[in-house]
Amino acid sequence: xxxxxxxxxxxxTSDGRAVDERLGNGGLISEDGDAGIFRVHxxxxxxxxxxxxxxxxxxxxxxxYLGHASEVPSPGDYKVRTIGGRELIFLRDTNGRIxxxxxxxxxxxxxxxxxxxxxAKRLRCFYHAWTFDTEGRLVSLPSPxxxxxxxxxxxxxxxxxxxxxxxxxxxxxxxxxxxxGDLASYLGEAAxxxxxxxxxxxxxxxxxxxxxxxxxRANWKLGVENAMDGYHFAPSHSTFLNYLKRTGFTTSDEGxxxxxxxxxxxxxIQNGHSGRIGFDWEPRFGEAERQxxxxxxxKLFDRLGPDRASFIADHSRTLFMFPNLLLFDIEGISIxxxxxxxxxxxxxxxxxxxxxxxxxxxxxVRLRVLxxxxxxxxxxxxxxxxxxxxxxxxxxxxxxxxSPGVDWNDVSRGMATEAEGGPLRTVDEGRxxxxxxxxAAMVTAPxxxxx
Amino acid sequence: MTSTTxxxxxxxxxxxxTEVEDFLYDEAALLSAWQWDDWxxxxxxxxxxxxxxxxxxxxxxxxxxxxxxxxxxxxxxRIIRMKSKNxxxxxxxxxxxxxxxxxxxxxxxxxxLAVQANFVVHRMRDGLLDPYVGRYDHRLVxxxxxxxxxxxxxxxxxxxxxxxxxxxxxL
Lengths: 451, 171
What we know:
The complex is a heterodimer.
Chain A: E1 2-5, H1 19-23, E2 29-32, E3 37-41, H2 43-46, H3 48-59, E4 63-68, E5 77-83, E6 86-92, E7 98-102, E8 117-119, E9 122-124, E10 131-133, E11 138-140, H4 151-156, E12 164-168, E13 171-175, H5 183-187, H6 190-198, E14 205-207, E15 212-216, H7 220-227, H8 233-236, H9 238-247, E16 257-260, E17 266-271, H10 287-304, H11 306-313, E18 315-321, E19 325-329, E20 333-342, E21 345-355, H12 360-373, H13 381-394, E22 408-410, H14 415-419, H15 430-443
Antiparallel strand pairs in A: 1-2, 2-3, 3-22, 4-13, 5-6, 5-8, 6-7, 9-10, 10-11, 12-13, 14-21, 15-21, 16-17, 17-18, 18-19, 19-20, 20-21
Chain B: H1 3-13, H2 17-32, H3 36-40, E1 43-52, E2 66-70, H4 72-83, E3 95-107, E4 113-125, E5 128-143, E6 146-156
Parallel strand pairs in B: 1-6
Antiparallel strand pairs in B: 1-2, 3-4, 4-5, 5-6
C-alpha cells in the first residue's frame, strides 16, 4: 500500500495557490511499506512556501534549544542569538534567573542589544533611551509626563519575553507557542540523552568560549539527514579515517544502533566507535590522558553505578532533538544548533561542552581532537557541507519535472529489514525516515491563524 | 643576557620588512598553486597552524574553541588530505587570490619574530566568489638562515562570514 503524507498541504499554502497545480504531485513523502521504498519530494528542500510553513508550524510551535546556562554565568550576562528566525536576548537576570526576550524595543522596534554579547544591569535602547531592567520591566524613559501615568501603560511596554522557557540540567529551551505544552512532555525520552551529557562530571558542564559559527548553502534538513545517516561515513570521510589509522586507531559505523523517540527526536548509539576524552583512550590523546582516564572512570563509576557509568563512558551518542539541536556525545561533546535562514541557506553554531573542572591539559586535547573532525576547518565536516551543498545545487535540475519519480530523493535503506523487526542500524536510513514522517505531519498541520 | 641569546636576538633584529614581505608573498604563491610540500617546508618541525573562532580570539588555543587548532601531526594530516582525491570539499580545488599588506614585525622577548599583516583572500569555487578578510598574527624563527613558521595564525575579523565559512582550504 502506498501512503502519502502531506495531502493536507494541498489547500494550505501561504500564498493560497494549490501545491498540486504547481508541482503536479500529491505529497511531500511517499511511503510504500510492501516494496520497502521511502521517498522525499525534493521541493521539501527548496520551496519557499514550505519554508514559510515551517516557520509557522515547526519553529513557531516546537520547543527549541536556545543555549547553555554556562554561556551566561554571571547576573547581567547576555548573548544575542537568533532562534527560529527571531533575534533574542538570552540573559541571566540580576537575580540569577535565565530569561529570553525578543531583541526589539517595544517602543519603536529598535534592536536593544547591538553587541553579540555583554553584561548589563540595565538594558537601554539608544534611540529614545527607554531603559529596562534584566527582568524586562520598563524602569525609565525620558520625559514620562507626556505618557499616560497609569502603571498598566508601563506594564504593557516591557521587553517581550518568549512564550515559554525551561531549563533542563543547564540546557535552556524555549517555545514561541504558549499552548505548546511543557518541555518534559515534548522531550519525552530524549531528555535522558541530554541528562547523560550533563552527568559527565559532578562539577557540572560548561560551554568552552569560542563558537564555531558557519553557514551551509543548503536546506537545514540536509544537515539533519547528514547527522542521522551513518551510511555516508566511510565513503565521505575516508581522509579522516585514514588520519585516524595513521594515529593507530580504526573505527567504523557498523554495529551502531538507532532509536526512534517521540516528536521527531532520534538518537544513534555506538559502542567503541571512537575514543572518548576522559573515558576511553585513543593513541592521539597522549600518555598523560591515558593515565588521567583511569581515575576519571573510577570516579564516574563510583558516582553513577556501573550501568549508567558504562553507558556514558563506553558509548557514543548522537541525539537529534527536533528541530534545531544536534547533541554529539562522541570523542568530545559538540552542541550543534541549526538555524534556517532561507530554503537554501542555514546558519550552524557549534559549541564545545566540557566538564567545568577539566584540567587544562585535558581540555587542550579535547578541543584539538574535537576540532580535528568538527567544524568548517575540521578534516571531516567540510566534506559533509560539500555533500549538502552539492545536493542543494543539483536538485534544481529536476524541479518541475513531472516524470514519475524523477524529482524525489530515496531514503529506503534498511526499510525492509526494519519492517521484519530487524535492528535499526545507524548505517541505515531509519532515523532519517522517522525525521521526515514527523516533519511532514508538522508542516501539513493547519496554519496558526486557522486554529 | 647570555651571548648566545643576544646573538640570536640580533640575528632576528636584522630581519628586514622586505624579507618578511617576500616570505609572505612567496607563501601566498605556494598556497594558490597548491604546492603543499613546499608550503609545509616553510614550517619548523613542531609548528602549529591556528584559526580562532570569531568570539574566541581573546582566548589562547588551549582555552577556547578554534576553527583550526592543528598541532604538527594534524597539520601534516591536513596536507595528506589536501593531496587526496577524497578531500571532497577541495575536489575540485578552490582557487584563491591572496592580497597581503600592512606588514609589521618586531622581536618578541621569547626570541621569536612577531609578524602581523592584513589579508584579503578571495576563494573561487562552485561559481561563487567568497572574500575572507582578516589579519595574520604569526610567530617566525630563523632556521638555517631562512624564516620559518613556529606559529601560523590567521584571524578572521568578521563576526561571521555569511557564505562559505568553510575553511577546507588554507586561509
